[in-house]
Amino acid sequence: MSNNNVMSYLESLVARYPELEACRESIASAYDILEDSYANHGKLLVAGNGGSAADSEHIVGELMKGFVKPRKLPEELINALTTANAELGPVLGNALQGALPAIALDGHPALTTAYMNDCEPLFCFAQQVNGYGIAGDVFLGISTSGNSKNILFAATIAKAKGLKVIALTGERDSKLSSLADVCIRVPQTETFKIQELHLPVYHCLCLMLEERFF
């Protein structure tokens, strides 16, 4: 990670939240995994429960559209849109934004309720990782305890299929931290305090990725 502009977001994060100095190395390592995946046309799968499910959706929202940059489409795609449809193509070319592919696994209610009813609720995220994930993708599991069983099952199938696993947890050691390639353990132990630090961490990662790719 040599890009000074990318690094500036991590420096800013630590300046604003000094307690996250303890996470500097793990955040940088998580960024490197994500950068490598996206540079090789991979995607991100994200899962969590409760507030962490909301965080999963939030992350996807920052990656799949402009966050702080406009993300204008490349000229070749704009030209291809015009070739595809001379009326509608230019409209899309002016309106669409660049995206980093990401999927939050807490959604898809028809799929998830069918799977939970027909099979095993704790395997619902794992089933989606099995279906969506390919080697080179990344699974991000968010769990304040680091011991959420459905996240552990999802991380297990992710590793088996050749995905990298990033964990976002509280400071205590956990089963998820043992499974993950990188675990960002924010220095809090109460759930709401952990979640309060998760947001600036994943905002930082999204800003770093946007700076790199757009």
Fold and architecture overview:
The chain contains ten helices and five strands; from the N terminus they run H-H-E-H-H-H-E-H-H-E-H-E-H-E-H. It starts with a helix and ends with a helix. It is globular and about 55 Å long. It has helices spanning 4-16, 24-39, 51-63, 75-84, 88-95, 109-118, 124-132, 149-160, 175-179, 191-213, and strands at residues 44-47, 102-104, 138-142, 164-169, 182-185. Strand 3 (138-142), helix 8 (149-160) and strand 4 form a beta-alpha-beta unit. The chain has two domains: 4-64 and 99-213, Glucose-6-phosphate isomerase like protein, domain 1 (Rossmann fold, 3-Layer(aba) Sandwich), CATH 3.40.50; 70-98, no CATH class. The model has no long low-confidence stretch (mean pLDDT 96). With 214 residues, the chain is α/β, with parallel strands linked by helices.
Q: Short summary of the structure?
A:
The chain is of the alpha/beta class. 56% of the residues lie in helices and 10% in strands. Strands 2-1-3-4-5 form a five-stranded parallel beta sheet, with helices on both faces.
Structural class: alpha/beta
Largest sheet, strands/sense/barrel: 5 strands, parallel
| Rg of Cα set | 18 Å
Task: Spell out the helices and strands N to C.
Answer: HHEHHHEHHEHEHEH
Specify the CATH class of the largest domain. Alpha Beta
- pLDDT < 50 runs, ≥5 residues: none
Question: What is the name of the CATH architecture of the largest domain?
Answer: 3-Layer(aba) Sandwich
By CATH, the superfamily of the largest domain comes out as Glucose-6-phosphate isomerase like protein, domain 1
By DSSP, the count of extended strands is 5
